[in-house]
């Protein structure tokens, strides 16, 4: 399946703690690419970052770097600028969960590549997290279904398949998923068991 090209024009980027020279080069590239940049000398507040879509920060800035302090990053793709390759500094940069990086000093090439990779990486991670969340929700729902099935088997003296089919039929009658009905049954057993008992006496 084809993927959409990453769009730069109109992109809102926050630049944090970078040198004046790097800020100037980034600003020039932003103008060329149609990017809207905001530059912060210190780590901005949550309110200041509202509306931003991507962040660039100086990974070598001592005002940002702290071996144990976790910066309050918003859920945005991040690019680190760095010129240092000491293990402690690289470890700290990776702990910020960056999506791309650029070597300092910023030059007139490499910005498009870094931004494209960062946006694409963030999109992929977001997609994977959404898929994982759905799978976790399905697993939780299956647990409720299993518990409801055991309850129906014990209360109505039915076999495994019979209990499942009864739950499915009740769910269809109520226009809900079998997992949703299972949650309802477990939360409010008596009335739902009465409904299931009535269905069980009918001919399938």
From TrEMBL:
Coiled coil: 118-145
Classification via InterPro entries: AmiR_N, ANTAR, CheY-like_superfamily, Sig_transdc_resp-reg_antiterm, WH-like_DNA-bd_sf
Keyword Coiled coil found: yes
Keywords, ordered alphabetically: Coiled coil
ANTAR domain sequence ranges: 125-186
SUPFAM superfamilies: CheY-like (SSF52172)
Database matches in Gene3D superfamilies: 3.40.50.2300, Winged helix-like DNA-binding domain superfamily/Winged helix DNA-binding domain
PROSITE patterns (UniProt xref): ANTAR
Keyword Coiled coil: yes
One GO molecular-function entry: RNA binding
Domain of life: Bacteria
Name of the protein described by the UniProt record: Antitermination regulator
Annotated organism of origin: Pantoea rodasii
Lineage: Bacteria, Pseudomonadati, Pseudomonadota, Gammaproteobacteria, Enterobacterales
